[in-house]
Amino acid sequence: MKDIIEMNEKIGMVNYKMIWNFFEGKCSDEEKKTVLAWVNESKQNMEQFLKLEEIYFLGRHNISDEKCDRAKQKFLQRIENQEKGRKLKSIRLYSIMRYAAVFVGVLVLSIFAYLHFSNENNSMIRFATAEGETKQLVLPDGSKVWLNENTSLEYPENFEDDIRLLSLNGEAYFEVTSNKHKPFVVKGSTMQIEVLGTKFNFKSSDKCRIAEASLLEGEIKASGNANEGLITLSPGQKVELNAYTRQMKVSNTDAEIDAIWHNDFVQLKNANIYDIALMLERIYNVNIVLSPEINKGNTYSGVLQKKKNIDEVLDILSHTIHFNYVINKRNIFISVE
């Protein structure tokens, strides 16, 4: 918890208490908007926010509640001391301000009434990515979204309705904050996905013939926008909807590979050379031919990072699994060392 206190001092434009309350789910709607606006303002802010979140939750799991409470009180006391100087200056203005309070109060109420009745609809937020660009966002409920290139996402400034409804045109990876009372619904051009809290990849745009969703964790419900049916997916499954035939189908998939674009990492667990070859074919759109002498018993466990070129990945794997390879255009031949 000491780390999160020190890092919070560097945040600057965001009130310190807002960050703590945001992680604990205790901040007001206005504070939540302030935090999210700061997070989505730049990549640097996003990285700092995620680091703080990681430290906060690691701290909650690794220390007792008593120590956590003491750290929190120490943190808040430091903030209070920093604020005292500013408060002392404001006390001298109290006498003047109290006479102005009635006028200001009437003015504020008038403005509030005007804004409330002239714009009852919740304002919408829209983010879009260009060719070759990806972007990470934090939504009003704390859910995280990664937008792939040529993708747009639209959602309300606050999820005030009974559902958290978003519109997607393109491809996005979601890590949804659980809320059993308020389902999370992503609507694409031909298919929509409903979840309570989960991790999934969803691709649906007005330019795609096939809309697809792959589930990594939790449970999702997929349905066509023209009432093509309702399908519930389990982790490791993919649902596809053909925009022309209007047919839906479910198949098994490696969901982590489907979503590899959002962080360039794949977790491998006792994967043999055949499993890895299939994975590389999907990621790099190549054909891999394995020599009959290849030992299927050799396995690889760990995190495999996606590289720009497949030969970089093969170099790394060949030092672990021990094989030789030859690349001829889109064909790759792998043989024993």
Q: What can you tell me about this protein's structure?
A:
The structure is a single chain. This protein has 337 residues and is of the alpha+beta class. The chain contains 9 helices and 18 strands. The chain has helices spanning 2-8, 16-24, 29-39, 43-62, 65-91, 94-118, 255-258, 273-284, 310-321, and strands at residues 124-128, 135-138, 144-147, 152-156, 164-175, 184-187, 191-195, 199-204, 210-217, 220-224, 230-233, 237-242, 248-252, 265-272, 287-290, 299-305, 323-328, 331-336. The strands form 3 sheets. Strands 1, 2, 3, 4, 5, 6, 7, 8, 9, 10, 11, 12 and 13 form a 13-stranded mixed sheet that branches. It has a 3-stranded mixed sheet with strand order 15-18-17, with helices on one face. A hairpin with a 7-residue loop joins β4 (152-156) and β5 (164-175). The two termini are 50 Å apart.
In angstroms, what is the radius of gyration? 25 Å
Put simply, the count of helices is 9
Average pLDDT, rounded to a whole number, is: 78
Total strands: 18
Distance between the termini: 50 Å
> Could you state the oligomeric state of the chains shown?
single chain
Structural class: alpha+beta
Residue share in helix? 25-40%
Question: Which strand-content bin applies to the residues?
Answer: 25-35%
Order of helices and strands: HHHHHHEEEEEEEEEEEEEHEHEEHEE
Largest sheet: 13 strands, mixed
Instruction: Choose one word for the global shape.
Output: globular
Low-confidence stretches: 1-10, 86-120
